[in-house]
Automatic annotation (TrEMBL):
SUPFAM superfamilies: Thioesterase/thiol ester dehydrase-isomerase (SSF54637). It holds the Pfam family DUF4442. This is DUF4442 domain-containing protein. It comes from Streptomyces tsukubensis.
Length: 145
């Protein structure tokens, strides 16, 4: 099962919004939100909540791709998130997530008995390439107790 399939199966909101996970690797995750009238805002573009879910889902996809081999000993959890809406988003939008720290550094902290935190940067773009939003999500790997 791919990471996108797993997230669609286990995260009802990702399924509800019909998010398309087009790339999921430890280096980058790309998730697409199709244009859907049911999730529009008052100006006809994707609702801010849908864009937040898109960005958070992209960040979760890269976390699973980078740290999926750690799930037997830790659970990934979002600690905080912020989003800035830069330009009007109309039509389909795409979120691209990148890790803000090397995965090996994060795993080394986990190995040392710590609960590592790490940022994931997300850029949300519309079809013409314009950046409509920027998001930062801080994640942790909480060790199983």
């Amino acid at each position: 099962m791919s990471i996108g399939d797993m997230l669609a199966a286990t995260v009802p909101m990702a399924r509800t919004l019909r998010l398309e996970f087009t790339e999921t690797s430890p280096e980058r995750a790309v998730v697409h939100l199709p244009d859907q009238a049911d999730y529009h805002n008052h100006v006809g573009g994707p609702h801010a909540g849908a864009m937040f879910t898109l960005g958070e889902s992209a960040s979760g996809a890269i976390v699973l791709a980078a740290f999926g081999d750690q799930l037997s000993r830790a659970v990934p959890l979002a600690v905080s998130a912020d989003i800035a809406y830069r330009k009007l988003a109309m039509g389909p939008v795409t979120a691209t997530a990148t890790l803000g720290r090397p995965a090996a550094e994060v795993v080394a902290e986990l190995d040392a008995g710590q609960r590592p935190e790490f940022p994931v940067a997300v850029e949300i773009t519309r079809e013409d390439g314009a950046v409509t939003g920027e998001m930062n999500v801080v994640w942790t790997l909480r060790p199983h107790t």
